[in-house]
Give the backbone structure.
Amino acid sequence: MTTTDFDFFSEITKDDNYQLLYPQKEVGLAIVWLYQKSLEGAFPEMTFKESDIHEALDAVNPRSESKSHRKPTEHYNRTIASLQEYFLRYDDEKQVYRFKEYANEFCKHAFNTLKSNFDPTQIERICKTLTKELKEAKTPNAIREWLTINFETFKPNLRQQIDFIERQIDHSVLELRQNISTNENSKIVQILKEIDTRFDEIRGQNKELRAAFREFDIIKEHLDERSMSIDDRQIGDSIHSAHLLLQEMKKLLSMVDSRLDRIHPKVKQLFSNLNKPLFNSQIEKFLRVLLDNSTVKIERNKKLLVLPAGLPEYNVFRQLTKFSIVERKKDLFPARARRKIRYPENEQSKQIAYRHSQNQFARQDTIDIWLNRIDADLEKESVVQFSEYFFQILQSTSNDLNLAIELAYRVIRDRKIYNWTLDISTQNDRSSQFKNLELRNLLIHRAS
């Protein structure tokens, strides 16, 4: 059965599978308690008795003496029975329990996630080892083994390194938010210094991890070469999954870069803003000490400033800059006078342009009169039909269709100015006088 054929969500929701795989907090902590004791050597053969399980359950969830527990043993027996599905294996001969593989992985994953340290050198070594093993894999079976064993084993370590960097950022931001509310500027500045240094370290770690991932390009290149010569769908799907993982890792690193680019400048700016008053106050104190404790002495009719005791004197020599002044005479290169060009006026063209403008103004006045007429009619009636005005303006202006069209345009354009609402239907209005002309039915309302 392939991964695509297996319905993971459907299977985990069947019966009590989810509760069996992810037990309640006190039961899960009891498993971790036993795992920790095993690491400490309390169970040399990695086996433990039923009483040890009872002790683990009591350690993580001690029974209260004020409450009556009718049958704690029966409750523990039901818990142990449920854990035997995925976590515990019972040895009938020795009458002891031991962890199943799922229990080991359950604890190891949490252990490695919480304990993981940043180690790009280890990742780089693993990447180079993977590259070497991939180069040596010549047959399809060897490629399949590399994908399903070597590469799959490496994936958790890779994700843990990126998760570690993201947790460092989250912890730094959380610490900043928790301490920013204090009124002690000196304390905030000190915290900001530490967080700023931490962000610099995180950025450096991200660059180191990106350098360790350079082997990905070599791995991707070899996988592409192998995929061209292998005609196996399962191997092809695995190679495609490996490509997606490599792209995802690069994307996650880019996301870390983006977060640092957004947060780090803000921390520096906040550090500068909070540190500025402290710097100003120190400068003010320094100047006050100079003013209070400095004296003036006269030597050879010159007043000299004497700084307070303990402050060294500095002789500052400043060479004066000499500028060469070049005077520009205004009459040295006189500008030539340009002749003004006078254009003759054409009285006939002027009169034509004037009459055209007058006609345009008259048409605008006519349209404004019709718009005001429509608005006045709406004061009397709740709705008017635009086609009536359209055909009336045609009749009164000797079939001036352009003027009627301009009126329609102004009605649509200036409807908000007049507080109108327009309803246009798919039916047409006709006039007995203009049989060859039809107009869409347009109703004008006064907006509420």
About this structure: Residues 233-293 form the longest helix (61 residues). The beta strands are 47-48, 88-91, 96-99, 295-299, 302-306, 383-385, 420-430, 438-446. Confidence is low (pLDDT under 50) at residues 64-69.
